[in-house]
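Summary of Year 1 activities. Much of the first year was spent building the evaluation harness for sequence design. The harness presents a backbone, in tokenized form, and records the residue chosen at every position. We chose the following record to illustrate the format because it has been used consistently in internal testing since the harness was completed.
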């Protein structure tokens, strides 16, 4: 979610001209054909494998992961399956640097797996398979001569569609952007190439990035690998699905309200939203008016473990992001001493009464706290009245609402708004605003002044929480729910909080919805906002927790996340 919102229920947004409808659909058809043709015939999934899926996919329960459809497709060799399933990022980099694995082998394996993933869950936008393999050959040649380009030498990395790669497209799921070709790379793309990485795919996003469900009129809907009836999250939903299917060892998304962490929750991956501007954000394709980024977005990684997130952060920051991007903070990576017997003081974020938690989330969060206490960590319950979860949500959506440029881009393409955008922004428009006063009679500058003042109240309240409780970190739910049915995720209150605060946040997968959750009821009360709870639909869905620290303590956040993760995986 990295664009603004406004009232989408405008007659000007409705398409009534059949010729216009035909025009934009023709553009979309041509783009989809180009994407299909970019997958080599040898990488196509046999129809007999696809026949294992119940249809329609988006209204039927299909567990792509447990069905092992990638392995059964026969597209990848045993060696390629081993590369994509048995190596973590550190092991891949070590094998690439030593020559035990070639970059060609690794990039080919992940390219094939990404292509298969695309055919199963529709997670890709742009593909660079031929160019990626050619770059891998060059990197292998350099290594054979004793030269390593950088700490990410030979590693394939996937990118969210909003990153620009020269001579390709970054549409943001907006038809009017199909006429745009990127003239240069985003700053982070240049950085990753300088560090030796190989860019091989970009991944799907929601229309305008302005919702946490991934669907648009160009590429269609990304499905959840654990259950195709559920959403993959957004706006980095394609990344979440691709990483979950091991079609990428390390992906990069963006986040201004939960757009890295919600897909991570929905798809069962690890992820990290850094402090804004620690990772270069320059050169992103945007659907907002320049200068309207009142909550700064962050770029950050999705991966298979905490260590892979740290590898990404450490590699990029140690390379000096400010050299590549004038908006990046010129603060070096800090190496922290190893905590031999860590005992952390952990604040426990309470349930906000306006954004109640679904039963599986309550259970998993309680179990996480129990495990942490059993390991000797001190858990400090924080007062709900001081944590401002709902107040931060109000503030964020009013800030997003100052800019309606995204809708003008949709209108320019003469396309319809997708259901999740309509649904999410209707929720935001109809929210019972208690913390934010009526701004309707104020001009935009005066509105901004009020909202900045309200945001400062929240930031100051949290400074007092850290100091008064002498906290190392805070643990919280990642969201009110697990993945839910398509187009109905709603407002991501528990992630938006740390965007308003500009705190680094890490999502850690932990447990899954089980049969015991089915018997537990959930009813919204007046004034509450939550997705509908359908326990039969979400059995087996991934669950997770979120941990966060104060701004600029990214290094501590990752170190503590590793400690928490180890504790959660233990048998205490």
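For this record, the design step produced the sequence shown next.
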């Amino acid at each position: 979610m990295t664009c603004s919102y406004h009232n989408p229920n405008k007659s000007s947004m409705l398409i009534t001209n059949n010729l216009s409808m035909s025009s934009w659909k023709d553009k979309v058809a041509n783009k989809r054909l180009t994407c299909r043709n970019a997958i080599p015939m040898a990488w196509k999934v046999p129809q007999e494998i696809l026949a294992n899926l119940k249809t329609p996919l988006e209204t039927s329960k299909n567990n792509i992961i447990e069905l092992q459809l990638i392995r059964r497709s026969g597209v990848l060799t045993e060696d390629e399956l081993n590369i994509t399933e048995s190596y973590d990022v550190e092991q891949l980099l070590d094998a690439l640097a030593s020559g035990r694995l070639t970059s060609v082998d690794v990039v080919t394996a992940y390219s094939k797996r990404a292509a298969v993933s695309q055919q199963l869950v529709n997670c890709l936008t742009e593909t660079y398979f031929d160019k990626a393999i050619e770059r891998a050959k060059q990197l292998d040649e350099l290594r054979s001569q004793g030269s390593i380009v950088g700490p990410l030498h030979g590693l394939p990395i996937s990118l969210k569609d909003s990153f620009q790669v020269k001579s390709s497209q970054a549409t943001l799921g907006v038809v009017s952007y199909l006429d745009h070709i990127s003239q240069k790379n985003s700053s982070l793309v240049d950085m990753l190439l300088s560090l030796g990485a190989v860019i091989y795919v970009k991944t799907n996003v929601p229309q305008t990035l302005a919702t946490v469900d991934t669907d648009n009129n160009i590429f269609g809907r990304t499905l959840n690998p654990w259950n195709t009836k559920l959403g993959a999250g957004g706006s980095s939903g394609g990344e979440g699905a691709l990483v979950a299917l091991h079609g990428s060892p390390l992906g990069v998304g963006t986040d201004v309200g939960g757009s890295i962490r919600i897909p991570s929750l929905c798809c069962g991956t690890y992820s990290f939203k850094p402090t804004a501007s620690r990772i270069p954000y320059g050169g992103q394709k945007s659907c907002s008016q320049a200068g309207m980024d009142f909550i700064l977005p962050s770029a950050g990684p999705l991966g298979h473990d905490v260590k892979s997130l740290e590898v990404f952060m450490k590699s990029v920051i140690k390379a000096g992001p400010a050299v590549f991007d004038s908006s990046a903070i010129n603060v070096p990576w800090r190496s922290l001493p190893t905590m031999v017997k860590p005992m952390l003081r952990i604040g426990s974020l309470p349930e906000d009464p306006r954004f109640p938690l679904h039963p599986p989330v309550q259970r998993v969060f309680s179990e996480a706290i129990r495990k942490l206490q059993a390991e000797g960590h001190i858990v400090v319950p924080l007062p709900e009245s001081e944590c401002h979860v709902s107040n931060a949500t109000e503030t964020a959506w009013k800030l997003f609402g100052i800019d309606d440029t995204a809708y003008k881009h949709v209108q320019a393409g003469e396309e319809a708004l997708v259901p999740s955008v309509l649904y999410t922004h209707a929720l935001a428009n109809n929210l019972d605003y208690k913390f934010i006063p009526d701004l309707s009679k104020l001009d935009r500058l005066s509105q901004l002044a009020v909202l900045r003042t309200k945001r400062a109240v929240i930031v100051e309240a949290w400074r007092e929480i850290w100091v008064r409780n002498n906290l190392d970190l805070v643990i919280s739910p990642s969201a009110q729910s697990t993945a839910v049915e398509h187009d109905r995720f709603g407002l991501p209150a528990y992630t938006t909080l740390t965007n308003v605060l500009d705190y680094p946040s890490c999502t850690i997968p932990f447990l899954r919805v089980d049969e015991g959750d089915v018997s537990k009821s959930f009813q919204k009360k007046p004034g509450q906002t939550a997705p509908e709870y359908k326990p039969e639909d979400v059995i087996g869905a991934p669950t997770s927790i979120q941990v966060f620290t104060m701004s600029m303590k990214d290094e501590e956040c990752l170190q503590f996340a590793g400690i928490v993760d180890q504790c959660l995986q233990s048998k205490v």
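The chain has one domain: 11-327+342-517+538-569. Quantitative recovery figures across the full test set are reported in Table 2.
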